[in-house]
């Protein structure tokens, strides 16, 4: 059972979007590049919701990969 949970966690974290062609994603409290337009990464939020019972994935998404740059201003 522990191996299955660990495997799901690894798959989840590798499935998160961490970079786009415009740069890295940022968390909720991080400073954003003023030259880029950011939007909430729906894919990361969905993965966080799906694995909410593991606690770590939603926290990881909110702290590190919540907003992703989508274009230049």
Topology:
Layout: H1 2-15, E1 19-20, E2 23-24, E3 36-40, H2 42-50, H3 56-64, E4 67-72
Compact description:
With 73 residues, the protein is an alpha+beta fold.
Number-wise, the strands total 4
Estimated radius of gyration: 13 Å
Shape: elongated
Low-confidence residue ranges: none
* Helix coverage percent: 40-55%
Count the domains: 1
Given the helix and strand composition, which structural class is it? alpha+beta
Task: Please report the distance between the alpha carbons of the first and last residues.
Answer: 47 Å
Largest sheet: 2 strands, antiparallel
The ordered string of helix (H) and strand (E) elements is HEEEHHE
Structural write-up:
This protein is an alpha+beta fold and 73 residues long. It has one domain. It is 44% helix and 21% strand. It is built from 3 helices and 4 strands. It has helices at residues 2-15, 42-50, 56-64; strands at residues 19-20, 23-24, 36-40, 67-72. Strand 1 (19-20) and strand 2 (23-24) form a beta hairpin. Helix 2 (42-50) packs antiparallel against helix 3 (56-64). The longest helix has 14 residues, at 2-15. The chain is elongated.
Attribute tags:
alpha+beta, two-stranded antiparallel ribbon, 3 helices, 44% helix
């Amino acid at each position: 059972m522990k191996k299955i949970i660990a495997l799901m966690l690894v798959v989840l974290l590798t499935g998160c979007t961490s970079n786009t062609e415009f740069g890295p994603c940022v968390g909720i409290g991080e400073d954003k590049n003023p030259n880029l337009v950011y939007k909430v990464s729906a894919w990361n939020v969905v993965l966080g919701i799906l694995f909410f019972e593991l606690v770590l994935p939603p926290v990881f998404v909110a702290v590190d990969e919540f907003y992703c740059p989508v274009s230049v201003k």
